[in-house]
Amino acid sequence: MAILFRSGRNRYLHTWLASLIVVLVATCRLASGIQLTPDSADSIKAAAKQVAEDLMTMYNGNQPGGIPGNLPAPYYWWQCGAMFGSLIDYYFYTGDDQFNDIVTEGMLYQVGPNNDYMTPNQTKTEGNDDQGFWAVAAMSAAEQKFPDPPADKPQWLALAQAVFNTQAMRWDIQYCNGGLRWQIFTFNTGYNYKNTISNGILFNLGARLAMYTRNQTYADWAERVWNWTEGTGMMNQDYDFFDGGHTDKNCTDVNRQQWTYNAGVYLLGAANMYNYTNGSDIWRERVSLTLNASNNFFFSQSVPNVMVEMQCEPSNTCDTDNWSFKAYLSRWMAATTKMAPWTYDMVMEKVRASAAGAALQCSGGSSGTLCGMKWTEGAKYDGTTGVGQQMSALEVIQSLLVSRVAAPVTNSTGGTSRGDPSAGSSGTFDPSLPHGTMQRRDRVGAGFLTTLVIISGIGSVWWMIA
After folding, report:
1. What is the pTM of this model?
2. Which of 48, 183, 184, 256 is most buried by its number of CB atoms within 10 A?
3. Rounded Cα gap, residues 45 and 364, in angstroms
4. Distance between CA 357 and CA 213 in Å, rounded?
5. Tens-digit pLDDT profile for residues 147-178
6. Contact by Cβ (8 Å): 255, 240
């Protein structure tokens, strides 16, 4: 009996030890995050794939009963467009096309009756920034040669042009000497607010459309928006970008909150203008100072070079929108290196450190791979999960591949997306405001210039450095 007892005890001890080993292995896996070797393309692609696949478990627009181009609550409509932008980048960097059909389906499903991302079922929440995030995704699709839609469907470049035109028609000179309001419709809260991100997206689109089409009209608009942003104090002399101001105060009450995506959207726009102007000193200075200001404010000092959403991350007050903002600064910093190659070393120092922190933070959930927000915490998972956290990790990790991909294309360097300079001319805007800065002659002139450039093949290809 004693021998049997010892044998049973050993058996139970063996079972207990085996269970303990399983727990310890699982714990080590959870603590280690996603494995990432920053100098290995295969490792980067594997890490990005894991993050992207986990991201897509949060999307149900391709499931029975789901709506293509919509995320479930608590996410707003704009964030699905932003997510598609991340997946367009994913294909560009990795060549993995497993999500392409889902992206195309959602991007086209949400274009609205005028093919300008003014969807009737979003009028209660759609602002200029919301519409703009779909447009910058379409712009990326054109620049990165994401597969073109079927010929009988709206095309990526034309969609970006349509949104640009609808927003230019909303330029409001009655208050604050210009600028876009946050909201499009008068009945939505925030209609009396002019926010930096809405205007930044218009600037970003104008600069990138100028680069793609060689159309001076877009460049003129980019200059106009930059000067307006500076003139209102929404950007200060140190190149810090603030949140916005109210029309009833003539935008003198600037909200001085700073968010990563505001800096990022102006950074990439300025880099495109630098390239478009064949390396002008003024745009080089603007790129440098915007990048320097971002590096000084949005990156940790205690954990060097790791990105932090300073407005909410340290205080644990980030909301569902805020969790995605680091995705856009990561995306636009990496893209800046293609338009202003001399920024590469400075940018990649930040991207490498941030990507390493993000990969370690992807240690949550039952899979042990869901991503948190606090990249400075390394493998100490912060307990948050969501679309924004996944997008942010995805963008910063796949940005490690930026030196391995070609520069964005243009109409004269291999771009295949068809444009329509007059797209969006029948779009929705508030006729009660004294718009009119974007006149019909501007749109006709834009069309003429675009056609002229295509026919003549004029461009500044020599300045583009992959």
Report:
1. 0.87
2. 48
3. 20
4. 38
5. 999 999 999 999 999 999 999 999 999 999 99
6. no
